[in-house]
Design brief:
Elements: H1 3-6, H2 12-18, H3 21-25, H4 42-53, E1 62-63, H5 64-72, H6 78-87, E2 91-93, E3 98-101
Antiparallel strand pairs: 1-3, 2-3
Length: about 110
């Protein structure tokens, strides 16, 4: 057990940090896996974006159309989600609109 889990008077910030990530983002997804809304808080937004990106193969480069098809399974605003993934360094893209998972995101 970590020290955070042993603490009896953990702050709400600490409790949030040690709460499993799926519990932090479950509220943003319907039972069928589609995204209800894009979170406003950065740590939750990043968790949601990483969850969506986990559907991508780290060894594959995706043309924009193919990437949009995958993202659309979660939410119809593919452009916003794609933009956020680029902005937060989850995806990279080249000048020909081909996307891939950044090396820092590969686990």
């Amino acid at each position: 057990m970590t020290d955070n889990l042993k603490t009896t008077h953990a702050t709400s910030e600490t409790r949030r940090k040690i709460q499993p990530m799926s519990e932090q983002i479950d509220q943003f997804f319907r039972p069928d896996g589609t995204l209800i809304s894009i979170p406003v808080k950065l740590h939750k937004k990043l968790a949601v974006l990483r969850h969506i990106a986990s559907e991508l193969s780290p060894d594959t480069k995706y043309p924009e159309k193919q990437l949009n098809e995958i993202i659309a399974e979660f939410h119809p605003d593919t452009a916003a989600l794609r933009r956020y993934m680029i902005e937060y360094g989850i995806l990279e893209r080249d000048g020909e609109s081909v996307y891939w998972i950044t090396k820092s995101e590969i686990r």
